[in-house]
Input
Amino acid sequence: MNQRLTVAVTGLNATDNPGPGVPVVRAIRAADPNVRVVGLGYEALDPGAYMTGIVDHVYLMPYPSQGTAVTLDRLRAIHAQTPIDVLIPTLDAELTGLVKLEPALRALGIRTCLPSAESLRLRAKDQLDQLNAHGVRVPKGVRLTEASAIASLDQQVRFPVMVKGQFYDAAMACSPMEVYGHFERLRARWGVPVIVQEFVHGVEFDITVVGDGQGGVVGAVPMRKMQLTDKGKAWGGVTVADPALTEFVRATMAALQWRGPCELEVMRANDDGACHLIEINPRFPAWVYLCVGAGRNLPWAAVQLALGRSVAPLAPPDPGVMFLRHSYDQICTLADYQALTTVGELHRKEAAA
Amino acid sequence: MYQHLALSDSGFLFDTRSGSTFTLNRTATWLLKALIGGAAEADLAPALTAQFEVDEVTASRDVEQFLFRMRDLHLRAEVEAR
Output
């Protein structure tokens, strides 16, 4: 291992639905300012690449859709130039490939904190309701691969329903006709299956969790959104302390045997107060810096686990820690943009260790 | 029963379980502080009459409305469950 810990983080993109890379880096730097950070981006205009004090080196990556061999070649080349100790991916589309590449990365000396292929399969939107068999309540779901199946939907699920793309995007539908409209749009954008899930009337909570891979929880920070973007993304939130939610997270992680970071989206039903698992995102959420404010630095815990160090389970955080997101216009140099567009990498002068 | 509710003297209420926040008027703040402090709901109206210049009928009605409102806002879940 290098004398100075080097952590590579993906997801430097930022729109009104920002990637989690920058907050993950901020959390790591909050734990240890001496860490060397390598940012892995997909576009020369990823704003995180240009922010002062975030990444020391930036490399552009091929998109995951180009396959694991291409990804591994690129990581090998980057690693030869800037040796990486730990890689923390933060984008959904990266996970399947990196889980496959985990042995090859380990052989190179790049450590990760990733779930098993089986855990990752179970969290897929069209597989999620299998967790009902493990005692984790998940709303009834139907996989749609063709429009002809929509007509009989009202015999299989109770309306209203959420219609979800297999990777992103969701919309509510109150009738099969409305499902049809959403199905065509989601199929065109994300392919099939499109997932139809019964809607739970209640309050949504989001919990970022790090699992130990043995069914245990290393740490979890539950949050209630206080304000949303028009895409429903959190633009402000507050930590909560609900023993029922804590127990639900414990049961879910025990069922999944999840290793590493994830985000659980949970609805607490208005009628009986029961928790329902709506979705699992297989990485840290963009609001993960709230963990640092809450005194539970989960990105740093993931780095420690990747390094093979044990991390004592973190107690639930205090309720009432708030975050409000902000965006601002940063001035960038054309030279930095030129470096990323022409050679696909950018190197900043590192602060002395 | 009400230990999950954090209430400031100014009437700002934070439900630590749900993350919801509320602003209470002076009377509601006084009533909820009494409940958090362990007062029984049946004792609220007499206590209100003793504390404020209000007759018993009005106090009873106000307390009843206050408790209904608490339930509407899911702040009395455990009372409902019993």
